[in-house]
Design brief:
TIM Barrel, 8 strands, binds SN-glycerol-3-phosphate
């Protein structure tokens, strides 16, 4: 499973740039950084070899396509994040015909993901955490999308997004989701286990009893 970092923080990206497979951003994450958007995206693309998602803010087809074409010029690994909806699906059709990679975001149902794939989206991002927040079952939606994509052999790759905790990552991997994007805190926690720390502590303390020479 590919692991993407869901952040626009250069500091967080630098810490894991050698290990992660890509980065996803959104307008909220970019706003936190207080830097010009294009400049920030360019810098992230220099740090990371894999795909870097940058989101359009226009709501009409022509506006989305114009912003997407402009963002796509920043670097070869830029992926254009397009919000789901009729305008978004139409924009994705145009961009996919031009060979511009897209990530359809704010997906909350399997039929939205079906439209994204039919339009030729490169990636689709169901938001599992936000579905769970409303007492839904985010992972069930992921399972349904994966099944639908397999049924029709769509090439669109699913990114499990809006991940809140390690359990989401485990469930995504058990379902065979190709990609999961997660906040810095969750990426860090994927390495950790209290028994690993205790084990290291114990080994090092026992090692002190080994005669040196
Ligand atoms: O990748 C989608 C993500 O940025 C949304 O996460 O935590 O705002 O629901 P969240």
């Amino acid at each position: 499973m590919n692991i993407f970092l869901d952040t626009a923080s250069l500091e967080e990206i630098r810490e894991f740039a050698d290990l992660i497979d890509g980065v996803t951003t959104n307008p909220t994450l970019v706003a936190r950084e207080g830097r010009p958007f294009r400049e920030l995206v360019a810098e992230i693309c220099r740090l990371v070899r894999g795909p870097v998602s940058a989101e359009v803010t226009a709501l009409d087809v022509e506006g989305m396509v114009a912003q997407a074409r402009d963002l796509a010029k920043i670097a070869d690994n830029v992926v254009i994040k397009i919000p789901m909806g009729r305008a978004g699906v139409r924009a994705v059709r145009k961009l996919s015909a031009e060979g511009i990679a897209t990530n359809v975001t704010l997906v909350f149902s399997p039929v939205q993901a079906l439209w994204a794939a039919k339009a030729g989206a490169t990636y689709v991002s169901p938001f599992v955490g936000r579905i769970d927040d409303r007492a839904g079952d985010g992972m069930e939606i992921v399972a349904q999308i994966l099944r639908i994509y397999e049924n029709y052999r769509y090439d669109t790759q699913l990114i499990v997004a809006s991940i809140r905790h390690v359990r989401h990552v485990v469930e995504a991997a058990l379902l065979g989701a190709p990609i999961a994007t997660m906040p810095y805190k969750v990426v860090r926690e994927l390495f950790d286990h209290p028994l690993t720390d205790l084990g290291i502590e114990r080994f090092l303390s026992d090692w002190k009893g080994v005669p040196q020479g």
